[in-house]
Design brief:
With about 270 residues, the chain is mainly α. The chain has a domain of about 190 residues. The protein is about 70% helix and about 0% strand.
Length: about 270
């Protein structure tokens, strides 16, 4: 028998490090974030139904209505101009990172593509959300001392609405929806999340781009929220469970082997 000994510079760890203690706080944060996002969606939906907003088309009349709406209902105006989506996208950052850690062993390539697309789309959304811009323009319009100032504020408001209806928002929906479908498909193969969570993720993100359709888009968007809420609850529960899971000493349960360790010889058997 030829026996070789070699010292490796890294400490020995299980190859299956998805439930490593270093990820505990990420899983906990992601779990809390998912439940918070679900609650925010319910609140925003209730506000939207109780106090419907003006139209989103970038017309002069819609812009004036938005300015008047903000003066009468400042907080509701922020909610109706998708402030909740801003908060939801902030909360989505730890969620997507936790999904990367939890799903990367199903398919490293597809998980990386999906999470990268989701984070790029999320970052782009922050630049186009019109909520606080319209609030500031509403105040400027009200305080304008001349017709020229009011016309300038009105034109700026139309531009803000046009940007929100433009490329940035469309790209955000496409990227995040595509990422959601990929991650949902990966969840179907993961015992940590299960088929119901995966199916709900796919359904919500397939329906989500339907909001672009004329006439029925608003209704499709509301329908997409139902599987999304179920997805949030199931994924949040899975994250909190992962945060409580202790990693096994070996990867035997998943048919995995251990990586070599620092200071410990690796022997080649005959």
């Amino acid at each position: 028998m030829v026996e070789l000994a070699r010292t490796w510079p890294l400490m020995e760890q299980p190859l299956d490090v998805d439930s490593h203690p270093e990820w505990t706080w990420l899983y906990r944060l992601a779990g809390v974030a998912t439940f918070t996002s679900a609650a925010l969606i319910i609140v925003a939906g209730a506000v939207f139904v109780r106090m419907p907003p003006p139209g989103f088309e970038p017309t002069a009349s819609n812009t004036r209505e938005w300015f008047a709406f903000f003066q009468a209902h400042r907080l509701v105006g922020l909610f109706n101009l998708d402030l909740v989506m801003v908060m939801d996208n902030v909360l989505a950052i730890p969620v997507f990172l936790a999904l990367y850690v939890a799903l990367r062993r199903i398919s490293l390539s597809w998980t990386t593509i999906a999470v990268a697309a989701a984070l790029v789309g999320t970052a782009g959304y922050f630049a186009i959300n019109p909520a606080f811009s319209m609030l500031a323009l509403s105040d400027h319009y009200l305080a304008a001392g001349s017709e020229a100032d009011r016309a300038a504020a009105l034109a700026a408001g139309q531009t803000v609405l046009a940007i929100y209806k433009g490329t940035g928002f469309n790209l955000y929906i496409v990227l995040v929806s595509a990422a959601g479908v990929i991650l949902g498909a990966l969840m179907l193969r993961s015992p940590r999340f299960g088929k119901v969570a995966g199916s709900c993720g796919i359904a919500a993100n397939v329906l989500n781009p339907g909001m672009f359709l004329p006439l029925v888009g608003l209704y499709i968007g509301f329908i997409a929220l139902l599987p999304l809420l179920v997805w949030y609850v199931l994924v949040g529960r899975a994250f909190l469970r992962l945060a409580q899971t202790r990693p096994t000493a070996t990867g035997a349960s998943d048919g995995l082997t251990r990586e070599p360790v620092a200071g410990e010889p690796m022997q080649q058997v005959r």
